[in-house]
Amino acid sequence: MLKEKRKKMSKKYKRYFLKAKEAKALLKEASERLKISLENIFGAEARIEAVETDFGEIFLINSKPLLFKKEGKVFPTLLFTEFLASAPKVVVDMGAVPHICNGADVMAPGIVRFEGNFNKGDLVFVVDEKHGKPIALGEIAYDNADAVKIKHGVVVKNIHFVGDKIWDYLKGLATATR
After folding, report:
1. Per-residue DSSP letters for the chain?
2. Rounded to an integer, what distance in angstroms lies between the CA atom of residue 126 and that of residue 132?
3. What is d(CA 126, CA 154) in angstroms, rounded to the nearest whole number?
4. Which domains does the chain have, with CATH numbers?
5. CA-CA distance, 127 to 90, in Å (whole number)?
6. Average pLDDT rounded to a whole number, residues 18-39
7. What per-residue confidence (pLDDT) applies to 2?
C-alpha cells in the first residue's frame, strides 16, 4: 500500500533543483516576507529543490522542506524551526486545537496569550498551550496592541495547518527519504 502511494506521488509531482539565480530570488522574497535573512541562516550557496504539486510548490532548502508557495506567495512550513524560534506566536487553549487542525481560523476566545511583536498582516505561528508545538501558520488580523483587546471574532487567518495537504505531503516526504 505504501509503495503504491509513493508511486502515485512520484507520478503526480515534479521535483527539480532551482538554478542559482532562481534560488537567490526565492530566498530574497522569503526573507522579505518572513522579516529574517535566510541567506544568513543557510548561506549564499543553499541548494534549493522545488516540488510542484497540485496544491502549490514546496521548496526544500538543503534537503529540508521549509518553504511553500501558494497563490503566488511564499510561506514557511510548520517544520521551519529556525523561523519558528524567532517568529511571533499565538498560544491557543487545547479546546481550539482540533478546530484549527481542521482548517478553522483562530478565534479570539481560544487565545491564551501572544508572544513576540507583530503588525497586522504578519505571519504568526499558532501553538498549543500544553506542548508549545506549532499547529498552524496564519496571518494576524491586528497589530500587537489591538489584538490583546479583541474578545470575539477572527484574529488569525489560517494558511497552513497540521493535517492539510502540505502537511500530509511533508509527512510522506519524510517517510520516503528515510
Report:
1. -HHHHHHHHHHH-EEEEPPHHHHHHHHHHHHHHHTS-HHHHH-TT--EEEEEETTEEEEEETTEEEEEEETTEEEE-TT-HHHHHHS-EEEE-TTTHHHHTTTPPEEGGGEEEEES---TT-EEEEEETTT--EEEEEEESS-HHHHTT--SSEEEEEEEETTSHHHHHHHHHHHHT-
2. 9
3. 13
4. 2-78 (3.10.450.120), 83-161 (2.30.130.10)
5. 6
6. 92
7. 46
**56-68 tens-digit pLDDT:** 899 999 999 999 9
Sheet with 14-17: list strands edge to edge: 14-17, 48-53, 56-61, 64-70, 73-76
Compute φ and ψ for 126, nearest 5 degrees. -105, 125
CA dist., res. 167 & res. 128, Å (int)? 17
Quote the cell numbers at residue 103.
482548517
